[in-house]
Amino acid sequence: MSAPWLVADVGGTNARFALVDGPDGVPSQVRSLPTRDYPGLAEAAAAYLEDTGARPSAACLAVAGPVAGGTYHLTNAGWPKGTPEAVRAHLGLPHLDVINDFEALSLALPRLTADDLIVIGERAPTGDAPLAVVGPGTGLGVAGLVPAPCGWVPVPGEGGQVDVPAATDREIEVTRLLRAEKGAVPAEYLLSGAGLARIHRYLAALDGERGEELTAKQICERRDDPRCDEALRMFCALLGSLAGNVALTFGARGGVYLGGGILPRIVDVLRGSAFRDRFEGKPPVEDYVRGIPTALIVHSGPALVGAAVRLAQSLPDAPPRREPA
Q1: What do you get for the CA distance between the two ends of the chain, in Å?
Q2: What is the mean pLDDT of residues 77-105?
């Protein structure tokens, strides 16, 4: 290739940029830029290119929000809606794709190896049936990946905005407090960084206490505190119910992958929680769901890999992927 490709994973808090040399390239010159420091996507990408001096031939920018009708909108970044064409023109690139971040993450799933995953349950995901990915971070992302004669087809959406899958009396009470505060109960309001902090705060209120206002990071670090431990376990249980719902919706018999930045910090809690019990507890189809594997993604930049896959699909002259020997 005469020039690299620019790829990005842009979330509500940080925008990660990198360069890749084709569909099998390993992301290099990775930089993470705070989204709050820039007025929009084009300006953040331009800052990265200026910093690295790179002159890419094409770009794929994966953003945490809906991409439809010729526009994109980052749900949690505070940036205005934009169009891929405006970003392409601003950067002076001959080709630019803007896709949903979980669409990019789903495209990376078949590329992940055993070293990129921690199995949650008894079996690792396989690549011979539909796949799905769920990821709590600044927000909550959901996507599917379906095999087809032409290759893997991503199915992005806004699954993080479905209702909270509360099941226990305690969870129902937490959801009641959420509805009173927010007027609605999207799963993202509890299954995200801010959501974990809300769970902790609501549990204190249910116990008749004001409670210390903690961030998600602080809650993850204070697992020996009973309320932090309860908040984390409720978080994992709710996530298990949601992931099971996603598995049923997509028919994801190949596996459900877990992404986002929170879960790798609490692997031991996740494994010891009710996650799998809630994932499988779907009467009358428990046997069907029990056979679906789950795994936590620990790869450092899977959406960047998926963005390169998308460019390989959309560029007419892109070099073919090298299949392993």
Answers
A1: 22
A2: 94
Average pLDDT, the chain: 93
Q: With pLDDT > 90 as the criterion, what percentage of the chain qualifies?
A: 83
pLDDT at position 321, please?
Answer: 56
Q: For every residue of the chain, which 3-state class applies, written as one string?
A: CCCCEEEEEECCCEEEEEEECCCCCCCEEEEEEEHHHCCCHHHHHHHHHHHHCCCCCEEEEEECCCEECCEECCCCCCCCCECHHHHHHHHCCCCEEEEEHHHHHHHHHHHCCHHHEEEECCCCCCCCCCEEEEEECCCEEEEEEEEECCEEEEEECCHHHCECCCCCHHHHHHHHHHHHHHCCCEHHHCCCHHHHHHHHHHHHHHCCCCCCCCCHHHHHHCCCCHHHHHHHHHHHHHHHHHHHHHHHHHCCCCEEEECCCCHHHHHHHHHHCCHHHHHHCCCCCHHHHHCCCEEEECCCCHHHHHHHHHHHHHCCCCCCCCCCC
Where do we find the tokens 């996603």? 246
CA angle (94, 66, 197) in 5-degree steps: 125
Q: Around Cβ 248, how many Cβ atoms within 10 Å?
A: 15
Q: What tokens were used for 324?
A: 């392993």
**pLDDT band per the 50, 70, 90 thresholds, residue 45:** very high
CB atoms within 10 A of CB 13: 17
